[in-house]
From TrEMBL:
Belongs to the N(4)/N(6)-methyltransferase family. Residues 2-105 form the DNA methylase adenine-specific domain. It comes from Neisseria zoodegmatis. Gene3D superfamilies: Vaccinia Virus protein VP39 (3.40.50.150). One of its GO terms (molecular function) is site-specific DNA-methyltransferase (adenine-specific) activity. Pfam families: N6_Mtase. PROSITE patterns: N6_MTASE (PS00092). Keywords: Hydrolase, Methyltransferase, Restriction system, S-adenosyl-L-methionine, Transferase. This is site-specific DNA-methyltransferase (adenine-specific).
Length: 105
């Protein structure tokens, strides 16, 4: 996120930074990084949790830029959870990626 900040003018980051991280250590590092780079506490909102199974930032807010580091090769429950096919992120495809292809989520 901080690299993205360098690429955008300050006026594009009026609302701040939003993110979600599954790894507790990385979550804490991200928050500390914000402080170390003089990002005010009220300008970032980072949640702890699994974005694929439990996205925390679902308030229909639009974003000017999205930066991600996909969770490559993580365990994917796929069709073991039949409710996922109704999730708005996966439903348009009509099928869930198989467990062996979690990177396609």
């Amino acid at each position: 996120m901080l690299q993205a900040k360098k690429q955008f003018d300050e006026h594009l980051i009026e609302e701040g930074f939003f993110g979600q991280e599954i790894n507790h250590t990385t979550y804490n590092l991200a928050r500390m990084n914000m402080f170390l780079h003089n990002i005010n506490y009220d300008k970032f909102h980072i949640e702890l949790g699994d974005t694929l199974l439990n996205p925390k930032l679902k308030d229909n807010k639009s974003f000017d830029a999205i930066v991600s580091n996909p969770p490559y090769s993580v365990k994917w429950i796929g069709s073991d959870d039949p409710t996922l096919i109704n999730d708005e992120r996966f439903a348009p495809a009509g099928i869930l990626p198989p467990k062996s292809k979690a990177d396609f989520c």
